[in-house]
């Protein structure tokens, strides 16, 4: 599963199409397996990545996803950064509310993804794009 | 774009999703299934997601939509084979899969559809093999 992926450095995947969202899922899964996340945690982080990569595509107009295997000295983990230069999020609290959507989806992408990971950070401002960082640690 | 094949087995359409679907592939499946339900007159749809290692909100919504479309077209949908880790993740994500019937495997899904049709046909105990509906109710 890890063939072709150098875990020593961040892996970058551009997101410009539906197929790229699939590639993000596959990349995240490869790294999640490599850092020995449990099956349930692999599933959670891949699902969160799928939601956020789709947001990058649909709301951000495309962007990049960077996946890194990390280690805090006690346990390994995976860190994923989703970055776009889109319109940004004007009201982050509202955007993080279950069921709130501007795109015709279910409104679970951002709020749901936050529940599925250990650390969740959003940097955004209107006109400044959006940068979301998520982390999942091996237990 | 890949397309997910739809198999007809007796009076049931069986969809076994074996690929990591792009969103476009998922939308195409919705449309293909609606057409096949009408073309075949099948009364049951079984969607086997054994091979799916995640179900995100997009695929979850697709499953709900397929169930609704099928119902309008007089077919019952049963989603089968969900992995435990997928079920745990779906619930935590906040997806309830409203209106979707589930079964643990294809065999039980087929039983569920057969029981449904038998009930619809006035509980005739001989009708457990998904009979054609009679001319008038």
Please characterize this protein's 3D structure.
The complex is a heterodimer of chains A (139) and B (137). Chain A is 35% helix and 27% strand. Chain A has 139 residues and is α+β, with helices and mostly antiparallel strands. Chain A has a single domain, classed as 2-Layer Sandwich (Heat Shock Protein 90), CATH 3.30.565. A five-stranded antiparallel sheet of chain A has the order 1-2-3-5-4, covered by helices on one side. In chain A, helix 1 runs antiparallel to helix 2 and helix 2 runs antiparallel to helix 4. Chain A starts with 10 loop residues before the first strand and ends with a strand. Chain B is an alpha/beta fold and 137 residues long. Chain B has a single domain, classed as Transcription Regulator spoIIAA, CATH 3.30.750. In chain B, strands 1-2-3-4-5 form a five-stranded mixed sheet, sandwiched between helices. In chain B, helix 1 runs parallel beside helix 2. Chains A and B meet through helix 1, helix 2 and helix 4 of A and helix 1, helix 2 and helix 3 of B.
Q: What is the total tally of β strands of chain B? A: 5
Tally of DSSP helical segments of chain B = 4
Relative helix content of chain A: 25-40%
Largest interface: A-B, 27 and 24 residues
Number of domains of chain B: 1
Q: Which CATH-level-2 architecture of chain B?
A: 2-Layer Sandwich
Q: Label the structural class of chain A.
A: alpha+beta
List the secondary-structure elements of chain B in sequence, H or E: EEHEHEHEH
How much helix is in the residues of chain B? 40-55%
Mean of the pLDDT scores of chain B?
Answer: 89
Going by CATH, the architecture of chain A would be 2-Layer Sandwich
C-alpha Rg of chain A (nearest Å): 14 Å
Q: Determine the N-to-C terminus distance of chain B.
A: 43 Å
The fraction of residues in strands of chain B falls at 15-25%
CATH homology-level superfamily of chain A: Histidine kinase-like ATPase, C-terminal domain
CATH fold-level topology of chain B: Transcription Regulator spoIIAA
Strand order of the largest sheet of chain A: 1-2-3-5-4
